[in-house]
Amino acid sequence: MGSWEEADPEQVHRGILPIASLGPLALNIALVIRFWGQWSVVLGVVGILVGNTLLHVLAIEWTARRFSRAAAESVRTLNNVVGISLAGVLTHWSPLVWAVVPYNMVWFYGMDRWVYPRMAFYLVAMNAVALSTGSSVELALAFDLFGISAFLVSQKRAELLRLMLGNAHRQRVELEKAHQEVQQMHQRALERERLSSLGMLAAGVAHEINNPMSFVTSNVNSMLRDMKDEPHLSELMKEYRDDVLPATLDGIKRVNSIVADLRRFARGDPEAHVAFDFDAEVQTALRIAQGQLGHVRVEKELSGVGTVVGRPRQIVQVLVNLLVNAGQATAPGGLVRVTTNRDSHWIFVQVRDTGSGMSEETKRHLFEPFFTTKPEGQGTGLGLSVVHGIVRSHGGRIEVESELGRGTCFTLRLPLVPPLLEYEPSSDGGMRRRPA
Questions:
Q1: Which residues contact 324 (CB under 8 A, 6 or more apart)?
Q2: Which one of 170, 206, 332, 347 is CB 3.0 to 4.6 Å from 295, fit for a cystine?
Q3: Cβ atoms 282, 340 nearer than 8 A
Q4: What is 113-128 written as a DSSP string?
Q5: How would DSSP label each residue in 355-421?
């Protein structure tokens, strides 16, 4: 069911017309019966009825199609005034003719904003013709009052109907919106569950890889140590001792670092504030995100931030999200640049890319939960909202500069020590600020 405003006026009119036509038809039949034998009156009443019907079919419907239903209702009003006036004069204003006046006011007014001016014209014109052609004042007043009362009642009922239809339409829209939101939340919950499962799977795989890699590392180290102790080696074995095995150990160390990063990153246990090397965590984030950065050039300028206090796993999560987004937004051959620096109180981190950039509308909604510009199934819209929450929980803030077609730059500003840790208990039971 739609609202009254959405209903098709032509459809409403076609639905009302057959019912509305019954009243005048019955009154005209009553007039024919009342004046049966007075053939001039009977013929006049029938002629007026036929004329009004033809005028409705030819003129009123044409006006509705060519102009509007409001214009057609105005033509109908004038047609009714002329027809009732002729019938009134012909029958010396029989009460059966007057009964048509309030009947028309109930049925033919209320479909547009011109209803009150049209009703006023209708009443004034009818009374002017009736009183000037011999109708009694009492009869005119009685039917006028009845018609006005019926009109007002019908208008109030129409307003109530519009209100009910409007409420029903709003409720339907709200229910549809709520249903869509529930479906979206369900899909997001499934996506989060899938990501959680993948995280646990990654942690499990990393744990399983860690054991055999320990054996490989130990064996290669032993082999290299033994070869260094052997004085008589062929040229080929010397190449293995001096180049191949050291390079292999470097590769093994890199694999071990990635496995350790994955295990630490995937753990879901609560993390306490600890002191950590900030630039080392940036390196960890770069290793974790390297699968999304293989198609671009990565530059890093780490200025030796040093040891800071915070939750390192969360900081890595923030940087991984920003790096992955930068890689996904940047075409092959583009640039992703990471820089760090500090002053006496703050750490500054920039993740800049030469990717597609963002519009002003996207930037306004960037940190809202579940907002994403990625295709369905490729993003949950949670990454940047989580990033924003982590940065805020550390007492910092995140800023973004972006322009369509010219890339994006995220700037993190983090305190060296989160605000809640800047104070320590004093000997008198209060709190005092930690010394710088």
A1: 289, 292, 383
A2: 332
A3: yes
A4: TTHHHHHHHHHHHHHH
A5: S----HHHHHTTTSTT---SPTTS--S-HHHHHHHHHHHTT-EEEEEEETTTEEEEEEEEESS-GGG
Strand blocks (E) in 177-311: 274-277, 297-302, 307-310
One-letter amino acid for residue 246 of the chain: P
Helix (H, G, I), strand (E, B) or coil at 259: helix
Q: Rounded to an integer, what distance in angstroms lies between the CA atom of residue 329 and that of residue 357?
A: 7
- CA 345/CA 275 separation, integer angstroms: 15
For 15, residues 6+ apart whose C-beta sits below 8 A from its C-beta are none
- pLDDT of 95-149, one tens digit each? 888 888 888 777 655 556 777 888 888 888 888 988 899 888 888 898 888 888 8
Handedness of CA 54, 55, 57, 58 (dihedral sign): positive
333 Ramachandran zone, left/alpha/beta (phi>0; psi -120 to 50): left
For residue 340, what is the enclosing H or E element? strand 335-342
Decide if 386 contacts 314 (C-beta within 8 A): no
